[in-house]
Amino acid sequence: KANPKAPEAIEARVSLADIYAKELDCDNGIKHYQDVLKSDDTRHAILYKLALLHEKKKENDQAIVCLEKAVKLFPGEAKYHQHLGFIFEAAGNHEKALPHFKTVMELENKA
Prior knowledge:
With 111 residues, this protein is mainly alpha-helical. It contains 6 helices and no strands. It is 78% helix and 0% strand.
């Protein structure tokens, strides 16, 4: 029996989740991205993709959790901060949105 934690199996699951995400099958995309994270919870790009699917389902609290984890793992990625800022701003939480937008500006100025 194939090992579901083998690198090939994990990458196949990422590809499967990506296809579901493109087809807007959010539930299956979320399931497969979560399975990938069970094998390796340091994959910040997967956390970002998972956040986008949660956001599409209007599960903003879950999206925030994923994005905050992604920011902790890779604080230099502007799009993670920008997306967090957008979600906080949409919820009317300007206090939490502002630092993320400021971080985006700082990161872009360094680039």
